Amino acid sequence: MDIESIGIVGAGQMGNGIAHVCALAGYDVLLNDVRQEALDDAVGLIRRNLDRQVSREKISAEHRDAAMGRIRTTLTLTDLGATDLVIEAATEREDVKHAIFAELLPALGERTILTSNTSSISITRLASRTDRPERFMGFHFMNPVPVMQLVELIRGIATDEATYAACHGVVERLGKTAATAEDFPAFIVNRILMPMINEAVYTLYEGVGNVNSIDQAMKLGTNHPMGPLELADFIGLDTCLAIMNVLHDGLADTKYRPCPLLTKYVEAGWLGRKTQRGFYDYRGETPEPTR
Ligand code: NAD
Hints:
The protein is α/β, with parallel strands linked by helices. It is built from 11 helices and 10 strands. The chain has helices at 13-24, 36-55, 61-69, 94-104, 123-128, 161-173, 189-205, 211-222, 228-235, 237-251, 260-267; strands at residues 5-9, 28-32, 71-74, 85-88, 113-116, 136-141, 150-155, 177-182, 280-281, 288-289. An 8-stranded mixed beta sheet has the order 3-2-1-4-5-6-7-8. Helix 7 crosses helix 9 and helix 10 crosses helix 11. The chain is globular. Residues 9-15, 32-35, 38, 89-92, 96, 100, 117-119, 140-141, 143, 235 line the site of nicotinamide-adenine-dinucleotide.
């Protein structure tokens, strides 16, 4: 199946990046959100990010202008019914996603492929509430979307081969690389990454190291570009905790129990970079460890 137009639900951190890369790859993009402000902010941010790519000579000014010309926005979800592929990238709450699909389905073309960028919700369960489980799958981009090479493609139990092939074709046209995952809690990347981050927090909690020594050890000792605590702050500690809870509940194994110190930071509202405080304090000139 040929995909030429892509509808994106949710214009937040992920939605704007997805719109950016899809428009650059030549797709017509229709971006939806419930808030006009989110749509305006997303378009402004995409423009600034494209400008940066022009100044670094990664793309030409014509390429940027053509990409901007391919992005349209709408507050009306059902306008996405006319697109070939919908990527849902709204808030990570299952009730929100079910409500979006319920409203969108009656407007969708029969052949339209429906996907979700969810980091942790079961693709099979989301698909089961739609009229097209065979044309439904997980399309999981990494943050920041324009920079990160990987897309995880997650098959639900019913996803058919044509749907998988069409989504794989989109990933290739975006110039990215797909890793295929079966639909089990947190898929591949977060299944491996989050327990590592959680273990780094245990290492801090038990006093084996402090914030600096743990991050330094992992950067220099394993060649990771960021330490695990620095990375946790970048992802958001609430997101890290939510994914650990998905692993703990979904796999029912105590090895996934979230570290009490991670819970404490989240309860304090110290969620990382987005709230200016997490394992580091970002309110000054340079990040200062909080432990
Ligand atoms: P975000 O909070 O930045 O953006 C979510 C957007 O969805 C907001 O603009 C909100 O207004 C909008 N929204 C809420 N309800 C809506 C509705 N009914 N219809 C249309 N829009 C609606 O969140 P995000 O970080 O961009 O995450 C979006 C999705 O991407 C989640 O499923 C998340 O798990 C997934 N994801 C996030 C990351 C990450 O690092 N942030 C990485 C991979 C995947």
